[in-house]
Backbone:
């Protein structure tokens, strides 16, 4: 009697379905986990008699097909500096221990002893790094390496700027009105020095003398200050020096700390707009800038929005040292789970497209967050009850068919 086989196929199918629910519930709190659903299908039917299909009896249910649903999980703040989640489509690209390419939605990353950005289970995150070379997102992807424990070399100042206003009501005295401001700059050894810019009102209308000096105590011999005159028109706009004039450069030689000589350009214009004005307001500076930096230790590394890897140094600077790559797959349901919240390609999977987040249909990367599991506990328990009832009904079917078989055998007694 085929009823035994039919009922046994149903028991096996419902057991598989319950196994899937158990796996979903086990990963209720796994970041980036995507829940699976079970798809049942019947087996080919048999026709009885000569009715050409009028009486059909099936052979039961086949082995269920599990379908992973890649729906968006809730984005939860984690506070982890290297945690990241994906809002939208796409996967992080990682490299496994056997050097195979894997894909994941889990965003719990950390730095290993070699400075590689990895998952907690050791798979290496893929993207672009600027350690030892400029960041080039057009190059092939590779392991993301961060400068763990490194010392950032100092950057000698080559230019500075001061945005300020000189009081149009100032007089030449006696004594003449004077305004000065200073900027901290750095030499090639990372030592700081103070450049002082001093403006003195002259007897000529709309004209000031300037003196740009470097502290003599930082030099082996007295330095030569940079001097000149700034002029303004009747609207308070600087007319001299003009944007077309040669740049003003303060030459610094013979530094007492043994650092290299310096040539520091005073940038008087932002584009073609003068940085110095003369209006009837108290003389004051509004902004200072210079392009040097002292030597600094690496304080921390974080993963920011957009997938940028940021290194923060003890001098307050933040530098982009890497970029996370993302991949999109047209049919993610065909991916095969490889454990550790990762997936690998199957024979039915379309070729992934790798690129930057927020491009080519790829989602955005949010730093300091993780994507929660898509398992719905209420739905899973509802399905569990349904599959349990299905298993019980088919088990009852086997006992019923067994009773019928016994009655049939007893007919000849």
Residues:
């Amino acid at each position: 009697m085929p009823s035994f086989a039919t009922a046994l196929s149903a028991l096996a199918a419902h057991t598989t379905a319950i196994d899937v629910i158990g796996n979903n519930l086990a990963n209720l709190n796994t970041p980036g986990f995507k829940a699976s659903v079970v798809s049942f299908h019947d087996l080919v039917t048999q026709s009885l008699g000569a009715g050409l299909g009028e009486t059909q009896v099936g052979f039961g249910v086949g082995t269920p097909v599990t379908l992973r649903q890649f729906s968006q999980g809730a984005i939860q703040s984690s506070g982890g500096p290297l945690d990241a989640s994906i809002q939208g489509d796409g996967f992080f690209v990682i490299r496994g221990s056997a050097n195979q390419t894997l894909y994941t939605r889990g965003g719990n990353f950390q730095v290993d002893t070699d400075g590689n950005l990895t998952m907690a289970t050791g798979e290496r995150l893929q993207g672009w790094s600027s350690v030892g070379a400029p960041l080039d997102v057009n190059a092939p992807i590779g392991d993301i390496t961060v400068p763990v424990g490194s010392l950032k070399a100092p950057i000698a100042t080559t230019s500075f700027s001061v945005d300020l206003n000189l009081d149009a009501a100032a007089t030449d005295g006696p004594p003449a009105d004077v305004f000065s401001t200073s900027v901290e700059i750095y030499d090639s050894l990372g030592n700081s020095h103070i450049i002082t810019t001093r403006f003195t009102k002259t007897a000529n209308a709309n004209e000031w003398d300037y003196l740009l000096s470097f502290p003599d105590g930082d030099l082996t011999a007295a330095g030569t200050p940079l001097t000149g005159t700034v002029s303004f028109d009747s609207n308070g706009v600087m007319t001299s020096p003009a944007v077309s004039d040669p740049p003003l450069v303060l030459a610094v030689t013979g530094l007492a700390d043994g650092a290299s000589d310096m040539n520091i350009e005073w940038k008087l214009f932002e584009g073609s707009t003068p940085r110095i004005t003369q209006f009837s307001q108290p003389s004051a500076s509004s902004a200072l800038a210079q392009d040097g930096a002292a030597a600094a230790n690496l304080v921390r590394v974080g993963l920011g929005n957009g997938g940028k890897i940021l290194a923060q140094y003890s001098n307050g600077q933040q530098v982009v040292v890497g970029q996370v790559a993302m991949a999109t797959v047209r049919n993610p349901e065909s991916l095969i789970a490889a454990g550790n919240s990762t997936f690998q390609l199957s024979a039915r999977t379309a070729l992934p497209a790798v690129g930057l987040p927020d491009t080519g249909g790829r989602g955005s990367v949010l730093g300091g967050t993780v994507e929660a599991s898509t398992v719905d506990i209420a739905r899973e328990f509802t399905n569990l009850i349904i599959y349990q009832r299905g298993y019980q009904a088919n088990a009852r079917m086997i006992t019923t068919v067994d009773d019928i078989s016994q009655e049939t055998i007893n007919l000849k007694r």
Observations:
- The first strand starts at residue 36 and ends at 39.
- The mean pLDDT is 91.
